Amino acid sequence: MATGTRYAGKVVVVTGGGRGIGAGIARAFVQNGAQVVICDKDESGGRALEQELTGTVFILCDVTREKDVQTLISETVRRFGRLDCVVNNAGYHPPPQWPEETSAEGFRQLLELNLLGTYTVTKFALPHLRKSQGNIINISSLVGAIGQVQAVPYVATKGAVTAMTKALALDESRYGVRVNCISPGNIWTPMWEGLAALTPDPAATVLQGTMNQPPGHLQWQPNPGPGRPLPPDVRQPALLHSRIPSPGPVCCLGQRRSLEIAVAQTCLAWGLGGP
Asked: What pLDDT is attached to residue 210?
């Protein structure tokens, strides 16, 4: 249910919106009055969120399939008559692998999802975003800039997303379309929890991820479960970033003590042009 009208009448597509960071972003936009299209290849999660959040529509879509993406964008515009913002959040982080354990096939599949999926959604959304002078927000990763052990393919794909964001921002500035990326650090999501469970000592993995964060805890939890409250220091940075204006095409590379703490609120700030 909307608690604000800041984005009333605006239409937002969130890929990978059925759970984790994507679901949190969808909730934030709905709470501020936007109409949100949840895109996910997991129908059960997407349908559940559609039922939970008034003002959302779920469209089954695999962003690695061009026809799915074409349908996603065309159906969004057919239903709502416009498109104001795309959040390219769909992605995957494989389990830890040393370089010699990786394969070219696995690398290609990850590129299809993390990089080409973002490219394809953006390509088909751009004609409509140019009309509305809208926004593209790509979810990259901090490790795309600083690296990560046992994650060569993932780091490469996220570094490419950040680079692509910069190029898009330059190209689309003439149309008034803003293009940004957010580079989160460790955020407690179902994916992060699942990856930790695959390690020999999940508790130690979670502790290591926790200590790698400047405040000393895993950052934002989009849907906190029992016993996992939202960290109290999230609120003030979230309020701060929800007030950042977006005067033009800029690319933010993710500041460790700011953007990773308030992903959804930063999407709100950038997604529709600031306050």
From this structure: 57
Q: Is 154 a catalytic residue?
A: yes
Name the pLDDT band for 172 (thresholds 50, 70, 90): very high
Instruction: Please name every residue paired with 261 in a beta bridge, in sequence order, or none if there are none.
Output: none
Residue found under tokens 């393919």: 153
Give the C-alpha separation, 20 to 221, whole Å: 8
CA atoms within 13 A on the CB side of 249: 18
Q: Please give the Cα distance from 141 to 218 (Å, whole number).
A: 15
- Tens-digit pLDDT profile for residues 91-120: 999 988 999 999 999 999 999 999 999 999
Residue 22 burial (CB count, 10 A): 29
**How long is the chain?**
275
Alpha carbons 16 and 139: distance in angstroms, whole number: 11
> For the chain, percent helix, then strand, then coil, each to nearest 5?
50, 10, 40
- pLDDT tens readout for residues 57-67: 999 999 999 99
- Architecture per CATH, domain 11-271, reads as 3-Layer(aba) Sandwich (3.40)
Question: How far, in Å, CA of 193 to CA of 245, rounded?
Answer: 34
Enumerate the domain spans of the chain: 11-271
Q: Phi and psi at residue 195, in whole multiples of 5°? A: -65, -40
Residue 142 confidence class, pLDDT cut points 50, 70, 90: confident
Annotated catalytic residue: which of 7, 92, 119, 154? 154
